[in-house]
Design brief:
mainly alpha, three-stranded antiparallel beta sheet, two-stranded antiparallel ribbon, 22 helices, 5 strands, 63% helix, 3% strand, XK-related_scramblase, transmembrane, membrane, cell membrane
């Protein structure tokens, strides 16, 4: 298995080299994320300091708490997961080391995140110095793909730090009198811009995560044991189409006809063989007493016009003259054959014709079905005498009816039953236990039918149904770039609409957000009613909060993906337009800043729609199909 199997191998349909895959998939995105993280963290710290310096401790504490919130939630999530603790029960050295490492990450989370980014950059550059399919390349890519709890912190940062930080700083900027301090406003603008970039990066990376996870992608913050177990289970239980073709490549060439060697062997035994007579079969069929015959081939045989104009040399000869000339040619040919023994050729002499006639006569005499043929009729067909007479030989016995014909119907019936059971299990939720459990007698009867059907040569060969897993490949560099720009524009439209609407109508703002939140919870519960257990209530609450700003296929797999995205984007666009119309027409403002926000919201909405349509039409990833091993 190639270490870069999960990495896109082409860009815009053109295959790329492995080094280009590493640069475009690992090195460039990690460097971009590192720069965005450094600027965002620095800008948030500066905003906090400016708020305390300007005499606004409330805004300062809010900003500082949002900086620490992702780290605290990540620490609680890791500590509360039993799979992450050491296997030995009790307070030993490994337990204290585990607690100390996570507390250090909690306190010094910026340095832990920087270490994670720099480590991935180092191994990405190291992988470029190794050739394909080498141990160094495989080790470097494995180090890049190593899981880490810092990835969970980076994911939570987008929704617990960047999203609320944007809302808070935009609200502060839009309030009256906030532009007096230029340093604070500059830090706030930088914080807002890079918060957009952080959210767009995470949303682009996890856009269709569940559809990619079922075909090989793992959570980047899972434990190494979980990731290894997941990969081994996927390799053991599934196989790709290429692997199936490599292991089971049916030959389309026709099978060798066993009659053809016998025909050629008889031909060479009678007319000779040019090739090296090493074969014992050819020697056994060649008699030393029979002279070798040659087949003379001239250029006239390859000229279509001359061959058509060629006539029989004996056309004006009588029968006696033909016999005389043929005997003479036969004698001369035998002398030439003794002098020139090499060369494959055949001359059809009178003696060969007589031998063939004798063989035909012997064959006709040996058959007793048609005898005593009379010529007393003018018809062109010959009528045998005693046409209605009882044949002397008894008729062959009638073949007994074998049960194979009925087995073919039983195989077809079993296939229909299997398809019906699979369809019911997939579509009907909460089936009664033991509904499709077949008894042992039925299994024994089916096993006997299958064993008997294996010996039935006339049974039809029906195609077997194989269960498949359909997922998605990861986006290439161009697709990620277009999708990233689309989400940046979408988030810009969404955040500006919510923040500006909250400045003028805070009560209606909370009513709109609450209704949207409840609608997302209802949609999530409706989506997971068939293929998920309703036991992740707290996580569904957090997922609905994420859906206030963007849409991710995360932790739940959408059944109707197209309707989800069309409905969500349509609802969000409708809400944004409604908020824009209300505050622009009913709000009281005098600054040009709000006119600029009005045009920015409209332009960003149009650009995001164009990017999404272009991505869906031309750049969306292809489906990846895995076959479940039986």
């Amino acid at each position: 298995m190639d270490v870069l199997d999960s990495v896109p191998r082409s860009v815009l349909g053109y295959p790329v080299k492995t080094r280009t895959q590493i640069v475009m998939t690992f090195l460039v995105p990690v460097i971009f994320e590192l720069l965005v993280y450094i600027v965002l963290t620095t800008a948030d710290i500066l905003v906090t300091i400016e708020h305390f310096r300007n005499g606004n401790p409330t805004w300062g504490w809010f900003t500082l708490s949002l900086i620490w919130l992702p780290s605290v939630v990540c620490f609680c999530s890791i500590i509360s997961t039993p799979e992450r603790w050491p296997e030995q029960i009790g307070c030993d050295e490994r337990t204290w080391h585990f607690l100390f490492a996570n507390i250090a990450i909690l306190v010094f989370f910026p340095f832990a995140a920087l270490y994670r980014f720099n480590r991935r950059i180092f191994w990405s550059i190291e992988a470029l110095f190794h050739d394909k399919n080498t141990y160094g390349r495989a080790q470097s890519v494995a180090k890049i793909l190593e899981t880490s709890p810092c990835e969970l912190y980076h994911f939570l940062q987008a929704f617990l730090q960047a999203a609320p930080q944007m809302m808070l700083q935009l609200y502060i900027l839009l309030r009256e009198g906030t532009f007096r301090n230029y340093d604070t406003a500059t830090a706030q603008v930088i914080s807002v811009v890079f918060s957009f970039l952080t959210m767009a990066t995470i949303i682009t990376s996890y856009q269709r995560f569940e559809s990619q996870k079922i075909v090989g992608r793992c959570y980047p913050w899972s434990t190494p044991e979980q990731a290894t177990t997941r990969r081994k289970e996927l390799l053991r239980c599934t196989s790709t189409a290429e692997a199936m073709l490599a292991t089971k490549s049916p030959s389309i060439a026709p099978e060798a006809d066993p009659i053809v060697p016998n025909i050629m062997r008889n031909f060479y035994s009678r007319y000779g063989n040019d090739e090296d007579p090493v074969s014992e079969t050819n020697i056994s069929f060649t008699t030393p007493s029979s002279p070798r015959k040659t087949l003379n081939v001239d250029a006239i045989n390859f000229n279509r016009q001359q061959s058509k104009a060629h006539h029989d040399p004996f056309v004006n000869f009588t029968d006696d003259d033909k016999l005389h000339e043929i005997n003479v040619f036969d004698t001369v040919d035998r002398v030439e054959t003794r002098q020139r023994p090499s060369g494959r050729s055949v001359s059809f002499k009178l003696r060969d014709t007589i031998e063939e006639l004798q063989e035909m006569d012997h064959y006709l005499r040996s058959t007793e079905d048609i005898r005593n043929v009379t010529d007393d009729s003018d018809d062109e067909y010959l009528k045998p005498d005693e046409f209605d007479a009882v044949p002397k030989k008894p008729a062959p016995p009638t073949p007994e009816a074998t049960p194979g014909m009925f087995h073919r119907v039983s195989v077809f019936r079993n296939m229909l039953l299997f398809n019906a059971e699979a369809f019911i299990k997939e579509k009907v939720p909460r089936l009664p236990e033991g509904m499709f459990d077949h008894t042992e007698t039925n299994r024994t009867a089916k096993r006997k039918v299958v064993e008997t059907d294996q010996y039935d040569g006339d049974a039809i060969s029906l195609p077997s149904r194989r269960q498949t897993i359909v997922g998605l490949e990861q986006d290439d560099m161009v697709g990620k770039t277009v999708l990233f720009v689309g989400w940046v524009m979408f988030l810009l439209m969404r955040m500006l609409s919510l923040s500006t609407f909250y400045v003028f109508f805070p009560l209606f703002f909370w009513m709109l957000v609450a209704n949207h939140y409840l609608l997302m919870i209802a949609c999530i519960i409706y989506e997971v009613r068939l293929h998920e257990k309703l036991e992740r209530y707290f996580f569904y609450l957090f997922l609905a909060y994420m859906y206030v700003f963007s849409l991710l296929e995360f932790k739940i797999r959408f059944i109707h993906v197209r309707w989800w995205y069309i409905g969500y984007i349509g609802i969000v666009m409708l809400e944004n337009v409604a908020m824009l119309v209300v505050w622009f027409n009913l709000g009281v403002f005098e600054s040009w800043w709000f006119y600029f926000l009005h045009h920015t919201i409209i332009v960003s909405g149009v650009l995001s729609t164009i990017c999404f349509l272009f991505y869906y039409a031309f750049l969306r990833p292809k489906a990846k199909v895995l076959f479940v091993n039986e």
